[in-house]
């Protein structure tokens, strides 16, 4: 019989996570014909360890029920594994970038029904030092400011919580000396932030990297530099309009590999959570995981 593991963060989804759990179990058992194991997380890294078990025991499917934090921890269980189960996602977080990028419904009830879809999409992941990420890495003082956005603010303001925190930091015009080496050369200079995105949805802004496809085998990178008060406002407008890469103070490139170093201590943010300090090395892992997407999802599916 096919084996599915549900990894659920019971603290996500405004206390409703366990109610959704029963529905996911039912649909996987009765409609999709899986033998189902349920693992509830109680602390950081539980989701990673559960997913490692699912890989070692060659499960067919892992379903992550929770926010982007739980999803990020779950996909990290896939690191360096020979057998990688298919992935199902029931988004219960406040931003849910990964689900947005894959057109998985943000309504949990609808997302649960998607789990019976026969459509799979191969999705790129990327490696940063010794971990994986599914969505975005940001480095610089601005990235550090974004790490301080609370879940409460995210629920209240959505993507604007990041924008608000970012604008405050930019007004303080703190920059980091960065050296960024990618497939096309090296960029050196002072910048408040470097961003490498895998999908078009970053911090709930579906327009940050509109060209990024989940399976294009590329990291879409942005370096914001020379940002003063006026430029910050225009960069904000460009971000909302989806043409950030065309802004005069934004360097944009795509690459398969990129390394970022600094002569100063610089922090990073990985998939919305605090990440390792510089130096960092990123490289793309094309089509690394197969994700269940809605039957009517966009192209390039199997
Ligand atoms: N039982 C638990 N209680 C509290 N925290 C948990 C529990 N299990 C896991 N966690 C931690 O909570 C973190 C955040 O969880 P998750 O992203 O699922 O929810 P969220 O904070 O509601 O979502 P978002 O980040 O989108 O606001 C996880 O990265 C994990 O380390």
Could you please describe the fold and organization of this structure?
The chain has 302 residues and is of the alpha+beta class. The protein has two domains: 2-116, Probable inorganic polyphosphate/atp-NAD kinase, domain 1 (Rossmann fold); 133-286, Tumour Suppressor Smad4, CATH 2.60.200.40. The protein has nine helices and 16 strands. Bound molecules: adenosine-5'-triphosphate. Adenosine-5'-triphosphate is lined by residues 9-12, 41-44, 66-70, 73, 93-95, 151, 154, 272. Its cofactor is Mg(2+).
List keywords for this structure.
globular, 6-stranded antiparallel beta sheet, alpha+beta, Tumour Suppressor Smad4, Rossmann fold
Précis, in short:
With 302 residues, the chain is α+β, with helices and mostly antiparallel strands. It has 9 helices and 16 strands. It has 2 domains: 2-116, Rossmann fold, CATH 3.40.50.10330; 133-286, Tumour Suppressor Smad4.
């Amino acid at each position: 019989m096919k084996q599915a593991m549900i990894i659920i963060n019971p603290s996500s989804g405004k206390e409703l996570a366990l109610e959704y759990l029963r529905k996911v179990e039912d649909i996987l058992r009765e409609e999709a014909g899986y033998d189902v194991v349920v693992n509830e997380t109680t602390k950081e890294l539980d989701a990673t360890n559960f997913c490692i078990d699912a890989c070692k025991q060659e499960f067919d499917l892992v379903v992550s029920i929770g926010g982007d934090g739980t999803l990020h921890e779950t996909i990290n269980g896939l690191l360096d594994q020979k057998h990688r189960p298919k992935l199902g996602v029931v988004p219960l977080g406040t931003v849910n970038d990964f689900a947005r990028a894959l057109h998985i419904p943000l309504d949990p009830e609808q997302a649960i029904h998607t789990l019976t879809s026969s459509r799979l999409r191969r999705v790129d992941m990327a490696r940063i030092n010794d971990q994986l990420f599914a969505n975005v890495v940001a480095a610089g003082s601005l990235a550090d400011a974004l790490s301080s956005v609370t879940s409460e603010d995210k629920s209240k303001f959505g993507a604007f919580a990041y924008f608000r925190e970012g604008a405050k930091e930019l007004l303080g015009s703190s920059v980091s000396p960065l050296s960024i080496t990618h497939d096309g050369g090296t960029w050196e200079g002072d910048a408040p932030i470097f961003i490498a995105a895998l999908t078009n949805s970053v911090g709930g802004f579906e327009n940050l990297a509109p060209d990024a496809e989940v399976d294009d085998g590329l990291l879409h990178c942005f370096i914001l530099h020379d940002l003063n008060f006026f430029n910050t406002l225009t960069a904000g407008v460009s971000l909302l309009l989806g043409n950030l890469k065309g802004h005069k103070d934004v360097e944009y490139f795509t690459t398969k590999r990129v390394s970022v170093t600094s002569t100063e201590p610089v922090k990073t943010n990985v998939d919305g959570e605090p990440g390792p300090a510089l130096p960092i090395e990123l490289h793309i892992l094309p089509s690394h995981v197969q994700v269940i997407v809605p039957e009517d999802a966009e192209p390039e599916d199997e």
